[in-house]
Write a structure and sequence with these properties.
Layout lengths: L3 E6 L5 E6 L3 H5 L5 E3 H23 L4 H14 L7 E9 L3
Antiparallel strand pairs: 1-2, 1-4, 3-4
C-alpha cells in the first residue's frame, strides 16, 4: 500500500506536507484546485478515513498516522474562516 504526501498551501501562504497511508487521497483531492477551507477539511478527512480503513482491511488495525494527520488539518483550519481558499500543490508517493 503506497503512502502519499500531499502539500497544502493555507490561506496565509504557509505550507504543510501532509501524510496519507494510501493512494486514497488522490481520489478525493485534486492538485492546484482551489478549495474552500470547509470543503478541504471535509474532503481530506474523508480521504484519510478511507486510507485508515484500507490499512485496517489489510493489517487489522486503523492507521493512527492518518487519524493524527486529520486532527492536525482540522486544528490548523481553525485559524481561518470557512470560505478562505486552500490549494493542494502536489500529491506524491512517499519515497521508499
Amino acid at each position: 500500500m503506497p503512502a502519499m504526501h500531499f502539500v497544502v498551501c493555507w490561506p496565509d501562504g504557509s505550507k504543510d506536507t501532509c501524510y496519507s497511508p494510501s493512494t486514497a487521497i488522490e481520489k478525493h483531492l485534486e492538485v492546484n484546485h482551489p478549495y474552500t477551507l470547509a470543503e478541504f477539511v471535509t474532503l481530506s478527512t474523508r480521504a484519510l478515513d478511507e486510507a485508515s480503513e484500507r490499512v485496517k482491511a489489510k493489517f487489522g488495525y486503523y492507521c493512527s498516522s492518518a487519524q493524527d494527520q486529520s486532527a492536525v488539518i482540522v486544528q490548523k483550519a481553525r485559524q481561518f474562516t470557512a470560505q478562505q481558499q486552500v490549494i493542494v500543490e502536489k500529491i506524491t508517493p512517499v519515497p521508499v
